[in-house]
Automatic annotation (TrEMBL):
This is Multiphosphoryl transfer protein. Keywords: Cytoplasm, Kinase, Magnesium, Metal-binding, Phosphoprotein, Phosphotransferase system, Sugar transport, Transferase, Transport. The phosphoenolpyruvate-dependent sugar phosphotransferase system (sugar PTS), a major carbohydrate active transport system, catalyzes the phosphorylation of incoming sugar substrates concomitantly with their translocation across the cell membrane. The enzyme II FruAB PTS system is involved in fructose transport. CDD domains: PTS-HPr_like, PTS_IIA_fru. Belongs to the PEP-utilizing enzyme family. The lineage of its organism: Bacteria, Bacillati, Cyanobacteriota, Cyanophyceae, Leptolyngbyales. The gene is ptsP.
Length: 816
C-alpha cells in the first residue's frame, strides 16, 4: 500500500496551463524522491498521446512505460487547484493526481479515486478542503462514500470473459473498453461479482476494481447490441491494448494536418500537399474567320492539322506510357481513335464548301458531337464530352496556331485554379512548376485526375465556382488528401503546412527504403500487399515498388484500341512476359471485363440503356464463348510456366460462377492444362449476401470496392455531383466487406481487396482489421501502405475496423 502523506499534497495551487500543472505535480514527485527529473518530461509527452482526464474535475497524468527506469519508487502526488485549469477544450481540472508507478501498487489509490468520481459533493469537498489529510484519507480508503449500483433488466445478450491483463481492468484497458463501447448505440453493462458498471464510463469501470484473472459478464441491449458484444469480446480477448504493446508500436504515419483557416471543399482527386501562390489557368482563345474563299485549300489544311494532331497525341501517349504506364496513357490512344473516325472527318470536310473556313467547320462538328454526348443519360458517357472538346482544341490549335496549355503558365511554382482542365492540359503540366491544382468542376475518377496522380501533382476537383473568384498571387495551401483548398491561410497554418511537407518528405524516404520488407504488424500478423496492373510493362515496376505479386491484371489492355480481338498467341506472349518478370510471385488474371463504360467497337455490342447493369464482365464472356475460350487457353498455357490464378468479374449468381468454371474446365481438359486456383470478384450486393454459398465454389474472393460502392449505394462513382458521396469508406460498404469475410471464413477461404480503398492507408488498416488477407493497389501506393501496416498491431486494426462498421456515415469513419 502506498504511504500517501500531507507532504505529497499541495493545496491552493494555481496553474496557467495543463503543462504548468503537470510540471508542478511532477516537481512534487521529484522533491519527495519518487522520480528523477526526466520523468516529468515523460509525463508531458504522455499527455500528447493519451487523455488523462478522468472526469468531474480530476486528471491523472503519468509517464510513458518506456521511461519507467526514471521512477525511483512508486508514488503519488496531488495538486489541488481550486480555481481550476483547462485540461482539454471544455474540460476543467481542479484535482491533479500525478502517478509514478513501477508496478501496480497505485491501483488501490485509483480504485478509491473512482468511488469519488460519480459523487460531485465528494469531489467538491476535496477541491475545497484546507486539510491535506482529508485528501490522503479519501485516496487511501480511510474514508469512503456510498455508490448506487446499476440494474441489468432487459440486458438479454451477454458474454462472460476473464480479464487476463497483468493488472486487471486498470486505467488504460478500461479506457479502450469504454471508447469502443461508446462507438455503439447499444447500452453496455459490465458485472463483476455483485457490482455493475456502465461499460461506456471509464470511472464506472474502474470502480469495479477488476483484478487479474477476474471473471466479468459484459451485457448489452439495443439495436446494435450483437455487434457491440462481438467487438468488445474480440477487444478483451486481444488484451485491450496493454500500455507496453502500444508504447512499442512505431507510429509510421503522416501527422494529421488540422488547419484553422477557412477552406473551399472539393473532391480529393490526387493526394499530396502544396503551398504556392494561386494562378488562374488561362487557355489561349483561338481566333479564326468563319469564311474562306478556297474550299479545297481549307480541306487540305484540315487534313494536315488532323495528321499533325495525331502525331502530337502519339508522342503524348508514348511519354505518359513511359512515365506512368500504359493504363494511364490509354486516354490519349482513345483520343487518337476518335480523331481517326472517318465519319467525323468527313462531316467536317463537308461543312467547308462553298465558303466556310476549316477551323469553323471543325469546331461546328466537334461541338455537335460533344453536346450529343452530354445529352446521354449515362453520366460516365456524358462526361466524355470533355475528351471530345480536348481533341477538337488540339486540331484547332494546329489550324490557327497557339493554344498550348503551358504557353501562358508562369516559370515559378504555383497552384493552378481553373474551371476545369482537359487531359491534354494536365499531361502538359510541369510538376516542378505546378505544385497542385484546384478545379471548379470534375471528379476523382476523371481522366484529368488520373493523369494528375500519375504525375504526383496534388489536386482537388469539383470545388465549385468560388474557385474562379479567388485572388491570383495569394499564397494558398492545397490538401489533396482531404480535398481542401485554403486560399487565405494564417501564418500559423502556413507554418503547420510547411512542417507537414517536411514530415511527408521524410516519411516517403523511409517508405521507399523499407518497401521490400513484408507488411508484418507489430504483433506478428502478415498482410499480403500486391499490385493492380494493366499490362506487361507494369509487372517489373510493381515488384520494384515492393509488391509481393499481382492481385489484379486487367486483361482489357489486350482488347482495347484495336480493330480485332487479340489472338491466343498474343495473349499468351503478354502473360508469359509477366510471369517471367514476377519470377514465381503470384499473378491473378481477371478475365475480360468489357462493358459498362468500356466499349469495344469490333464486338458489335448493342446499345444498352444502362450498360452498367447490362452485358458486361463474365456475362459478355459467357455470350461470346469464342473470346472466352481463347483467353482461357492463353492463361492456362502461361500457367505452366508461372504462378497464375484466374478470377472472374461481375459474378452475381451461382449460375454465373458455375457456368464460368464449366467453360474453364472444358478448356483445361482439351489442352491438358494445369490446375489453377479460381476466384471471383465481389462487386455486387448478391455476391455479398451469398458469400457463404459462393465460398463453396471458389478458392478466394477479391472485393472490387469501386464497383461495390456504386452498386451498393446506387451512385455512379464517375458522376460529377455524386462523386463525393460514393465513398468506399461508407459503413454500408465496410459492413458488406466484413460480411464477405465472414462468409468466406466458414469455408476456410481468403478474401482480398483490389479496389481503390486498398491503396488508402486508412482504408488498408480498416480492411486488414476486417479480416482481409490481401490488399491489391496501384503501384505508387505500395510502399506507404506497407509502412502503415508495419506500424500498427492487428489488435489495433481490428479495434479500428469494429469502430468503423459501427459508424453511421463515411465522415464518421474518416474521423476515426
Amino acid at each position: 500500500m502506498i504511504n500517501l502523506t500531507p507532504e505529497d499534497v499541495r493545496l491552493k495551487a494555481t496553474a496557467h496551463s495543463k503543462k504548468d500543472a503537470i510540471r508542478q505535480v511532477g516537481e512534487l514527485l521529484v522533491n519527495r524522491g519518487r522520480i528523477q527529473p526526466g520523468y516529468v518530461d515523460s509525463m508531458q509527452m504522455r499527455e500528447t498521446q493519451a487523455n488523462t482526464y478522468l472526469g468531474n474535475s480530476i486528471a491523472i497524468p503519468h509517464g510513458q512505460p518506456a521511461q519507467r527506469d526514471l521512477i525511483v519508487t512508486t508514488g503519488i502526488a496531488v495538486l489541488q487547484i481550486p480555481a481550476g485549469v483547462e485540461w482539454n477544450p471544455g474540460e476543467v481540472v481542479r484535482l491533479v493526481v500525478g502517478i509514478a508507478a513501477k508496478s501496480d501498487e497505485h491501483l488501490q489509490i485509483l480504485t478509491n479515486l473512482t468511488h469519488v468520481l460519480d459523487d460531485p459533493a465528494a469531489v467538491q469537498a476535496l477541491v475545497d478542503t484546507e486539510d491535506a489529510q482529508v485528501i490522503c484519507d479519501r485516496l487511501t480508503g480511510k474514508s469512503s462514500s456510498s455508490s448506487k449500483g446499476l440494474d441489468t433488466e432487459g440486458f438479454d445478450q451477454f458474454f462472460d470473459v476473464t480479464i487476463d491483463a497483468p493488472t486487471g481492468l486498470h486505467a488504460r484497458p478500461a479506457t479502450v473498453f469504454a471508447d469502443l463501447a461508446k462507438s455503439f448505440s447499444a447500452e453496455v453493462r459490465v458485472r463483476y461479482g455483485d457490482q455493475v458498471a456502465n461499460g461506456k464510463s471509464l470511472m464506472s469501470l474502474l470502480k469495479l476494481g477488476v483484478e487479474r484473472d477476474g471473471m466479468v459478464r459484459v451485457l448489452a441491449k439495443g439495436s446494435d447490441a450483437t455487434q457491440a458484444l462481438n467487438a468488445l469480446q474480440q477487444a478483451v480477448e486481444d488484451g485491450l491494448e496493454e500500455e507496453e504493446e502500444v508504447a512499442a508500436s512505431p507510429a509510421l504515419k503522416l501527422p494529421a494536418l488540422e488547419l484553422e483557416s477557412r477552406s473551399l471543399s472539393g473532391v480529393a482527386a490526387s493526394p499530396g500537399l502544396a503551398i504556392a501562390p494561386l494562378h488562374r489557368f488561362h487557355r489561349t482563345k483561338l481566333e479564326f474567320a468563319e469564311t474562306a474563299s478556297d474550299p479545297t485549300s481549307e480541306q487540305d489544311r484540315l487534313r494536315d492539322a488532323i495528321a499533325l494532331a495525331d502525331i502530337d497525341l502519339t508522342d503524348l501517349y508514348t511519354t505518359i506510357k513511359e512515365r506512368s504506364g500504359k493504363a494511364k496513357a490509354a486516354i490519349f490512344q482513345a483520343h487518337r481513335e476518335f480523331l481517326a473516325d472517318p465519319e467525323l472527318q468527313q462531316e467536317a470536310l463537308n461543312q467547308i464548301p462553298p465558303n466556310h473556313s476549316a477551323p469553323w467547320a471543325w469546331q461546328q462538328v466537334i461541338e455537335t458531337k460533344a453536346k450529343e454526348l452530354e445529352a446521354l443519360a449515362d453520366p460516365v458517357l456524358s462526361g466524355r464530352a470533355a475528351d471530345v472538346r480536348d481533341v477538337g482544341q488540339r486540331v484547332l490549335a494546329r489550324l490557327v496556331g497557339g493554344g498550348e496549355a503551358g504557353s501562358a503558365l508562369p516559370d515559378h511554382p504555383v497552384i493552378l485554379i481553373a474551371d476545369d482542365l482537359t487531359p491534354s492540359d494536365t499531361a502538359g503540366l510541369d510538376p516542378e512548376k505546378i505544385q497542385g491544382f484546384c478545379t471548379a468542376a470534375g471528379g476523382a475518377t476523371s481522366h484529368t485526375a488520373i493523369i494528375a496522380r500519375s504525375l504526383n501533382i496534388p489536386a482537388v476537383a469539383g470545388a465549385g465556382n468560388g474557385v474562379m473568384e479567388l485572388r491570383e498571387g495569394a499564397i494558398a495551401i492545397l490538401d489533396g488528401d482531404k480535398g481542401q483548398l485554403y486560399a487565405a491561410p494564417t501564418e500559423a497554418d502556413l507554418a503547420k503546412a510547411r512542417q507537414a511537407q517536411l514530415d511527408r518528405a521524410q516519411l516517403r524516404d523511409v517508405e521507399q527504403q523499407t518497401r521490400f520488407q513484408p507488411a508484418i504488424t507489430t504483433d506478428g500478423h502478415r498482410v499480403e500487399v500486391v499490385a493492380n496492373i494493366g499490362g506487361p510493362a507494369e509487372a517489373g515496376p510493381a515488384v520494384n515498388a515492393g509488391g509481393e505479386g499481382i492481385g489484379l491484371l486487367r486483361t482489357e489492355f489486350l482488347f482495347l484500341n484495336r480493330s480485332a480481338a487479340p489472338t491466343e498467341e498474343e495473349q499468351y506472349d503478354a502473360l508469359r512476359q509477366m510471369t517471367q518478370a514476377l519470377n514465381s510471385l503470384p499473378l491473378i488474371v481477371r478475365t475480360l471485363d468489357i462493358g459498362g463504360d468500356k466499349h469495344v467497337p469490333y464486338l458489335n455490342q448493342p446499345v444498352e440503356e444502362n450498360p452498367f447493369l447490362g452485358i458486361r464482365g463474365v456475362r459478355l464472356c459467357l455470350e461470346r464463348t469464342d473470346l472466352f475460350e481463347t483467353q482461357l487457353r492463353a492463361i492456362l498455357r502461361a500457367a505452366r510456366g508461372g504462378y497464375i490464378r484466374i478470377m472472374f468479374p461481375m459474378i452475381a449468381t451461382l449460375e454465373d460462377i458455375r457456368a464460368a468454371k464449366t467453360v474453364l474446365e472444358s478448356v483445361r481438359a482439351a489442352i491438358d492444362g494445369p490446375p489453377v486456383e479460381v476466384g471471383m470478384m465481389v462487386e455486387v450486393p448478391s455476391a455479398v449476401l451469398m458469400a457463404a454459398e459462393f465460398a463453396q465454389e471458389v478458392d478466394f474472393f477479391s472485393v472490387g470496392t469501386n464497383d461495390l460502392t456504386q452498386y451498393l449505394l446506387a451512385m455512379d462513382r464517375g458522376h460529377p455531383t455524386l462523386a463525393k458521396q460514393a465513398d468506399a469508406l461508407h459503413p454500408a460498404v465496410l459492413r458488406a466487406i466484413y460480411q464477405t469475410v465472414q462468409g468466406a471464413k466458414l469455408a476456410g477461404k481468403w478474401v482480398g481487396v483490389c479496389g481503390g480503398l486498398a491503396g488508402e492507408p486508412q482504408g488498408a488498416m480498416i480492411l486488414a482489421g476486417l479480416g482481409v488477407k490481401e490488399l491489391s493497389m496501384d503501384i505508387p501506393s505500395i510502399p506507404k501502405v506497407k509502412a502503415r501496416l508495419r506500424g500498427a498491431s492487428m489488435k489495433q486494426m481490428k479495434r479500428l475496423a469494429q469502430r468503423a462498421i459501427a459508424c453511421r456515415t463515411a465522415e464518421e469513419v474518416r474521423a476515426l
